[in-house]
């Protein structure tokens, strides 16, 4: 039975949990759906088979078909956390947010420490533009998970940033610094913090952290450009022009195939525009 204690000897359930960890490619899904359908025809009261096929339909982006299979699971074994979350994920993909929230809340009534449920609830609120509720639920997901990943912090930070107030941006910076301390001092955190400091017009802090990024980066050309922009905002024209030169120098040391690439052409144009702005001021 799916919704009771998991039987580790049940090969169907083992396959289901492998599916949730390692989604199949599109072509493989067609084959697996056909196989699951054949198996169901021979064992029409096997809830595990409907759960598997519903999950396969979900991965195949056939969300209403997945919901129908999850309904069959519920009719066979009754409601439960797995079924509620399966419904919620499909309704979310269909942008039926009220149905998604209804099932998420039912799942949380059964397990109020489910980080996946809180994260999905936060994503629903993000899509609805309810950023404060989104931030609260991303925080609850972070607080209840044992598997902290980069996105755990970034999602909270983005939700807080979306609120748009200085206070919420400060909170966003705090969450990102937590990520640097608790997970790893990643550039993705530091880059976002620089952007947040810039929104707050705390240019000294932004320049200090951008300088740290430059010192540790393997590729520095865009990082110099970003610091040049910050210097320009503070009217430090000399330092801005120095960083523009550093950016050009870094590009000149790249392999030829990179120097002639479109991203580098775009960067050269951005550097030219910035230097013209600085010299015209």
Give the SSE layout.
Blueprint: H1 11-21, H2 26-42, H3 47-59, H4 63-77, H5 81-93, H6 97-110, H7 115-127, H8 131-144, H9 150-163, H10 166-182, H11 187-199, H12 203-216, H13 221-233, H14 237-252, H15 256-259, H16 262-280
Helix pairs in contact: 1-3, 2-3, 3-4, 4-5, 5-6, 6-7, 7-8, 8-9, 9-10, 10-11, 11-12, 12-13, 13-14, 13-16, 14-16
Task: Give a count of the beta strands, DSSP E runs of length 2 or more.
Answer: 0
Q: What class would the helix/strand composition place it in?
A: mainly alpha
Mean pLDDT: 91
CATH architecture of the domain at 59-72 and 81-142: Alpha Horseshoe
Q: Give the assembly state of these chains.
A: single chain
Q: Point out poorly predicted stretches.
A: 1-14
Count the helices. How many?
Answer: 16
Summarize the helix and strand pattern as letters. HHHHHHHHHHHHHHHH
The first-to-last residue Cα distance is 73 Å
Indicate the percent of residues in helices. over 70%
Largest sheet features: none
The third-level CATH topology of the domain at 59-72 and 81-142 is Serine Threonine Protein Phosphatase 5, Tetratricopeptide repeat
């Amino acid at each position: 039975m799916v919704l009771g204690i998991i039987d580790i000897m049940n090969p169907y359930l083992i396959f289901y949990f492998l599916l949730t960890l390692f989604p199949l490619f599109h072509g493989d899904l067609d084959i697996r759906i056909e196989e699951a359908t054949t198996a169901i025809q021979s064992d029409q009261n096997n809830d595990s088979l409907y759960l598997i096929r519903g999950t396969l339909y979900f991965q195949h982006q056939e969300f209403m078909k997945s919901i129908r299979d999850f309904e069959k699971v519920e009719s066979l074994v009754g409601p439960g956390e797995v079924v509620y979350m399966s419904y919620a994920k499909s309704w979310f993909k269909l942008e039926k947010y009220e149905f998604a929230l209804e099932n998420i809340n039912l799942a949380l009534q059964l397990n109020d420490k489910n980080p996946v449920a809180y994260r999905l609830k936060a994503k629903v609120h993000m899509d609805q533009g309810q950023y404060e509720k989104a931030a609260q639920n991303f925080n609850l997901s972070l607080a209840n998970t044992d598997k902290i990943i980069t996105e755990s912090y970034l999602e909270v930070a983005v939700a807080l940033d979306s609120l748009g107030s200085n206070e919420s941006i400060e909170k966003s910076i705090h969450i990102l610094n937590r990520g640097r301390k608790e997970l790893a001092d990643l550039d993705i955190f530091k880059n976002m913090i620089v952007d947040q400091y810039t929104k707050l017009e705390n240019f000294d802090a932004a320049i200090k952290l951008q300088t740290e990024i430059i010192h540790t980066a393997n590729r520095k050309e865009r990082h110099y450009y970003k610091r040049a922009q910050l210097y320009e905002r503070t009217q430090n024209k000399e330092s801005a022009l120095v960083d523009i030169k550093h950016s050009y120098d870094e590009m000149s040391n790249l392999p030829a195939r990179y120097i002639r690439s479109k991203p580098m052409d775009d960067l050269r144009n951005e550097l030219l525009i910035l230097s013209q702005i600085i010299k015209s001021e």
